[in-house]
Specification:
Layout (H helix, E strand, L loop, with lengths): L4 H10 L8 H12 L5 H18 L6 H15 L3 E2 L12 H7 L1 E2 L1 H14 L4 E4 L6 E4 L7 E3 L5 E3 L1 H12 L15 H18 L3 H14 L4 H13 L3 H14 L6 H14 L1
Parallel strand pairs: 1-2
Antiparallel strand pairs: 3-4, 5-6
Length: about 270
């Protein structure tokens, strides 16, 4: 494992049962490895302050929709939080400290701010890992509504979610029950890291993509496809020993994978060339 103090902080936070992970802390430690010039406690305190200010605006009758309306007014009207539509693939959108500082982000990190405020005012909400677009939901049985933190806290019903997916994919999408499954804290963090992995791959920043994969594998050590991707990146960067280890693990664990023969040929070429 990378022995930097930043990686160690992240590992220490996630190396416990999922429900004990402090999602905000873990997300800040994740950001710290890429964006080192900040104090995580400063941003945890900022979340506390936001929650206290929301608490002061809550109505006497604490109906869920009224609480959501109060959070929305504070975040989007008072603070000016907004989805970053002009530079969506900026890595800073995935770093919680930058989202708090710049008041802009992508669906999952804006959802994280929303979740952390809701948690602090004792209004439990959960993340919903819908494909293509992250949502949140009040955590009570048959809530029936979803909140889109990227779009000004818009309240959505299942039919609205279907329309949102159709917009994203440019074609009708049939809703599946798994689309509305609650995601765990580790899955939440892995989704942030997967966003970063893709961004860094598209920017040809191989070492940063590897660092994102490293942390996904800390969360999910048996994610063999991530080892394959890291192995290919190691190969491209001429780290032959590391590449062989990851790629051999992939073909041993998934010998019938569609690309297993291609990976075996790559391994054979590496041995011949070395």
């Amino acid at each position: 494992m990378n022995d930097s103090p930043y990686r160690q902080l992240f590992y220490s936070e996630i190396n416990q049962s999922d429900e004990q992970i402090d999602l905000a802390k873990a997300a800040l430690y994740l950001a710290l490895e890429d964006d080192r010039e900040f104090d995580p406690d400063e941003y945890l305190n900022a979340l506390d302050t936001m929650a206290n200010e929301v608490q002061e605006t809550l109505p006497e009758s604490l109906y869920p929709l009224r609480i959501i309306k109060s959070i929305n007014k504070y975040l989007y009207n008072d603070l000016g939080l907004t989805g970053n539509t002009t530079n969506y693939y900026d890595p800073k959108n995935s770093f919680l400290n930058q989202v708090i500082e710049r008041r802009t982000g992508i669906p999952i990190t804006l959802s994280l701010v929303y979740l952390e405020i809701a948690k602090r005012i004792n209004f439990p909400m959960v993340g919903i890992g819908m494909p293509g677009h992250f949502l949140i939901q009040p955590d009570f049985e048959e809530a029936g509504i979803f909140v889109d933190a990227f779009n000004q806290g818009e309240i959505l019903f299942p039919q609205d979610c279907q329309e949102r997916l159709a917009q994203i994919y440019g074609q009708p999408v049939e809703l599946q029950p798994q689309f509305f499954a609650t995601i765990s804290n580790k899955q939440f963090l892995a989704r942030i890291l997967t966003n970063l992995k893709v961004i860094y791959l598209n920017r040809n920043e191989g070492l940063k993509a590897i660092a994102a994969i490293d942390r996904i594998l800390l969360l999910f050590p048996n994610a063999v496809v991530e080892k394959r991707d890291r192995g290919v990146l190691y190969c491209q960067l001429n780290f032959w020993a590391e590449a062989r280890q990851d790629l051999e693990s992939y073909v041993v664990n998934i010998p019938q994978a569609e690309d297993a023969e291609i990976i075996r040929q790559l391994l054979a070429k590496m041995i011949t060339d070395s």
